[in-house]
Task: inverse folding
């Protein structure tokens, strides 16, 4: 089926007044071939339309197209209603160059009228329509292809959007402790300098206390390293006399007064009523990561074989373990005793970071300077209940060497019920495998006179730590370093 063809000069030079049906590119391709000769371009002259899926059912329309774009849109509309949406478009580029596009007929959603366009079969992002132009205009557009490509490069903007993500499944599969991060931090509130007037020390003082806390923890034997520090803004309600500085919304010069203050207020028509407290969050990480230890219990277990203590900085650690001749206690069977001995040989504390996947690390310092952390009494009671109910205990501890976890896996399994004879040797890190950072504060050497549970552990060959141990009845846990008035908040 062919529409009427107008008389046309056979000359290669374009007829300036000859109207032709041309291509108008509406949406670009997502592929790199958009500007190659195989793809249709704005200004290409339509020579033929073939509608239908099979060669026998093809309906052909050849140029010239009477009534141009309007007539072709009617053809596309009728074909779309008959559910014949497959179409091939043959175009002419210049006097002798031809190209072809296989597409499907779809409605133009962006147009208010019933307009139809062609969507490429090979690339659904590529959409073209039709436009009435003179042959001379088409040749000019074809000749300006290089310029139009450069303009398209300038105009093209990167697009963004939202994509779904399987958070629940990934948090179960990819985290060492499901639904719990490995990011460790402690929040330090600014210290009160005047309780009556509610004045607070500046940000520099809070940073100095954060630095002191980290240095003291490292010096006591806690195997952690500095990661980052940041200020954190907390909103509160205050009066005008409380704020160290106020901000007037109409004056940017007031911002210079906020550089080092830890509490400031926003001023409105009724005075200062909104305060911003600038706390400091200190991020840190264990040197060798967190390592899980599962302690399985037997019916005849009368004690766990270890006791716990707490440092002044709020870290829970294994303070003592049972003697080597008692090999049938849970601490020995699980390998906890060997790991403890390896830590003491390296002058490190065996810090407990989690109990049953719950963190037991210090997490906040109040405005009075008290550290909010877990007490040893409640932890000991929970461990005792584990022993009585025979529910396995899952501990996570800080390692002091990055290569220690892999060597521990090779030498022992957390599910093992028998003790490995050479575990103590294999768990010791190889000398030189990890060199501490020159700027990292190393634990202080332990002297025989040290007796505080939070002051570290004794080194190899030095007198053991003087820790009070409560072994009355079924309890085998340390309740030292716990005072309601001093440590518990």
Result:
């Amino acid at each position: 089926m062919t529409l009427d063809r107008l008389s046309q000069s056979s000359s290669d030079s374009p007829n300036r007044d000859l109207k032709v049906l041309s291509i108008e590119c509406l949406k670009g391709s997502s592929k790199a071939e958009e500007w190659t000769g195989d793809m249709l371009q704005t200004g290409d002259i339509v020579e033929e339309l073939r509608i239908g899926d099979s060669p026998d059912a093809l309906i052909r329309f050849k140029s010239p197209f009477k009534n141009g774009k309007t007539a072709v849109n009617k053809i596309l509309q009728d074909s779309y209603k008959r559910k014949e949406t497959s179409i091939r478009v043959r175009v002419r580029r210049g006097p002798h160059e031809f190209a072809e596009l296989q597409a499907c007929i779809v409605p133009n959603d962006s147009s208010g009228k019933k307009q139809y366009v062609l969507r490429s079969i090979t690339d659904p992002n590529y959409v073209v329509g039709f436009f009435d132009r003179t042959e001379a205009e088409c040749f000019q557009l074809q000749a300006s292809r290089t310029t139009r490509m450069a303009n398209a490069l300038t105009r093209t903007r990167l697009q963004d959007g939202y994509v779904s993500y399987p958070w629940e499944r990934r948090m179960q599969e990819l985290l060492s402790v499901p639904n719990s991060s490995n990011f460790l931090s402690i929040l330090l509130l600014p210290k009160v300098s005047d309780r009556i007037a509610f004045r607070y020390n500046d940000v520099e003082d809070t940073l100095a206390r954060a630095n002191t806390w980290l240095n003291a923890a490292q010096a006591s034997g806690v195997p952690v390293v500095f990661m980052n520090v940041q200020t954190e803004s907390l909103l509160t309600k205050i009066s005008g006399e409380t704020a160290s500085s106020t901000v007037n919304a109409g004056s940017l010069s007031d911002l210079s007064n906020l550089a080092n203050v830890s509490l400031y207020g926003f001023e409105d028509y009724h005075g200062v009523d909104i305060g911003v407290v600038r706390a400091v969050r200190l991020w840190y990480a264990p040197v060798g990561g967190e390592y899980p230890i599962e302690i399985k219990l037997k019916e005849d277990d009368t004690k766990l074989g270890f006791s716990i203590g707490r440092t002044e900085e709020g870290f829970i650690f294994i303070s003592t373990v049972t003697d080597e001749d008692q090999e049938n206690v849970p601490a020995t069977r699980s390998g906890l005793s060997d790991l403890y001995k390896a830590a003491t040989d390296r002058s490190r504390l065996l810090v407990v970071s989690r109990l049953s996947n719950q963190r037991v690390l210090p997490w906040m310092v109040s405005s009075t300077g008290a550290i909010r952390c877990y007490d040893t009494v409640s932890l000991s009671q929970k461990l005792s209940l584990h022993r009585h109910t025979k529910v396995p205990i899952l501990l996570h501890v800080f390692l002091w060497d990055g290569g220690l976890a892999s060597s521990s896996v090779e030498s022992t399994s957390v599910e093992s019920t028998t003790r490995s004879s050479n575990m103590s040797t294999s768990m010791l890190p190889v000398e030189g495998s990890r060199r501490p950072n020159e700027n990292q504060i190393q634990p202080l050497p332990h002297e025989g006179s040290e007796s505080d549970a939070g002051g570290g552990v004794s080194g190899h060959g030095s007198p053991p730590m003087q820790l009070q141990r409560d072994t009355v009845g079924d309890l085998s846990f340390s309740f030292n370093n716990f005072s309601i008035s001093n440590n518990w908040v």
